[in-house]
Structure formats: structure tokens, C-alpha cells
Amino acid sequence: MRAAAFGRATRQALLCLLVCFATVADAQFLLRTVRATPAPPANPAAILDFTGWEIAIPTSRALTTGTGSPYAGGQLKYSNATAADIAQSEAAILNPIGTYSSEWLQVQQAPDAQYEVLFKSPIWGSPSSPFEASDHTRSELRQLTDGPTNSGDGKGDFKIADRGRITMVARPLRFPDLASNGTASTTGNNLTMMQIHPNDGLAGDNASSTVFSILALRKNGELQATLTNADGTRASDPPWNVPIVLLSGVQLGDVLWIELTTEADRLEWRAENRTRAAGTIVTLTQSVPDVASNGLTQRTRFQYFKAGCYHATPPNFSSDAPEAVSGVLAPLLVSDFAAVAIRSLSYTFLGP
Questions:
Q1: pTM of the predicted protein model
Q2: Are strands 303-310 and 138-143 parallel, antiparallel or unpaired?
Q3: Contact of 166 with 346, CB cutoff 8 Å
Q4: pLDDT band at residue 4, thresholds of 50, 70 and 90?
Q5: 295: exposed, middle or buried (Cβ count in 10 Å: 0-12, 13-18, 19+)
Q6: pLDDT in tens, 110-126
Q7: Looking at the domain covering 40-349, what would its CATH class be?
Q8: Angle at CA of residue 342, ends 178 and 136, nearest 5°
């Protein structure tokens, strides 16, 4: 009897010890797990290196009103941005961007738990140069670092023979709802994620085209690269101007890796859909024709990189203010936006 009781007591003691050790081990495991979980990035600069980039967001310009302008009555402003928001967004160079974050440029966590920077562009916001060159809103970054050949204007540019390279990992997230004529559309819009843009503000650059290369996702799932000649001719002309399709079957939310390298007479594209075809890299080439406009071609013009979310289909409402637009468009004007999330972004110059 005593032996049996002793045995039971011994087993209970051993069981208690095992439970205690298991509890300690579990606690140590949990402690290691907590310590290993990094804190969320505090701001966009904790994810992307903004060295050498300039920001443009849709609250970054002073409002100008005037009769006959598309933005008469101060309706240019999309949101109630504070003075501090506007002041921060006008910073020329983002490094160090510090703690800047806003509705248009902010940290978010994706469904795969990766952190990324959300670039959001509304249809009715402040464009980069109202009443001047563009009525397109955007939340995007513009290259500020000079290439080996540059114009000397201090804003950063290069010629395509300098072999500029831009690399990006991004997720397209939302198409705009309105087409370029201000009507609701389900097929005609695209989501612009990357550009090469002429430095057409330079004295002496009187070429007709105000854009060179655009990378955009179409609603049919095609990631397309479009090239424009210096004289403005494009897809209806020789075959080199027809948009090339880098990827097909792309869906909103897919993780895309994109690399573009400029050469003296061509653009070299590489792309990968890491969500649907990881490890399969598509390589395509676009020839850059030597078509001149006022003595300049896209080969000889100064260019710069842009990346982010560019609202390529702004409304064309003449002098209509948002509240003057009737029917289905009125609510869209205050809710329509495009969105792209970027996980990594860099550019460099390989040299001629």
C-alpha cells in the first residue's frame, strides 16, 4: 500500500515538473517570437530610400482660381489638407523625409504581411502644374540625380545613351473609374506606374511630345510599355511605336518586379509576375526611332525617371466644378482614385 502511494506521489511530482518545464519552455518560445517580430515601419522612408527623389502629391500646389479654368472656384483641392500637409508635400527632396506620411503616401501592410508604401492619386486633386502643362493628378516620385550627361539645370536628368536603369517591385491596386472624357468607364482606363519623361521645361526643348515612355497596367490584364516619338506620333505609326506587352493576366494585387534600362537606341525591359509566375522573367526590347521635332529626338532630349501612381485619365469638364456635374459622375468625383503600392525602388546610371 505504501509502495503504491509512493508511486502515485512520485508520478504526480514528475508530472508537475514536466508541466512546469513545458510552461517555461513555452514562455521562452513566446518571448523569442515576440522579440523576433519587427515593429511596423514608422513612415514611408523606413521602406523606400528617397535619396535623389522629388515628391508630387495631389495637395502640393497652391490653388489658383479663375473664370474659364477647369478648376474654377477653388475646386482643384480634392481633400481638406492642412497647411502642414501642404508644406511637407512641397519639400523638394525627400531624403530625409523624416516622419512624413499622408493619405497619398503612407505605409500599409499587404495580405502577404509585407510592408509597402501606398501611392494614391484622386481624380480631382491638384496636378503638378495646374493651368500649365498638365491636368493629371499624381502621387509619384521624380528622379533628381543627374546622369553622366545632364542639362545642368540642377533638377536631375540624363540622355538615354547614359544607360539609366530603374528597378521597382510594386503592386497595382486600383484602377480609376472615370475615362479621359469624364464619363464612367469599365474598359478604357489604365493604371500608370512608371515613366521616362522629357525635361521639356528646358530652354530650347520645343519638341512636340511631352512624354517618352509609359508603363501602365490595362484593365485587360496586360502590363504595357508605350513609346512616343519627339513629334508626338505613337501607336498608329511604324511598328516600333505599338505598345509592347510585358506581362499578361496581371490582376490587381499581384506583386510585379520591373526593370528598365535605356540604351542609345532602345529600351530594355525585364518583368516578372512574382504572384503568378515567380522565376519567369520576360525580356523585351523597344527600339527608339530617330524621329525629330524642332531638331530634337527622344535619343537626344534630356529625360528623367518617374514612378508611383499617375492618374492617366483625369476628367475633361471644361469649367464644370464637381458639384455642377450631374448624375452618376458627381459621387465619383469625390471618391475616384488610382492606387499603386511600391515595395522597393531604385535608379542608377551604368554609363555610356
A1: 0.77
A2: antiparallel
A3: yes
A4: low
A5: exposed
A6: 999 999 999 988 766 65
A7: mainly beta
A8: 35
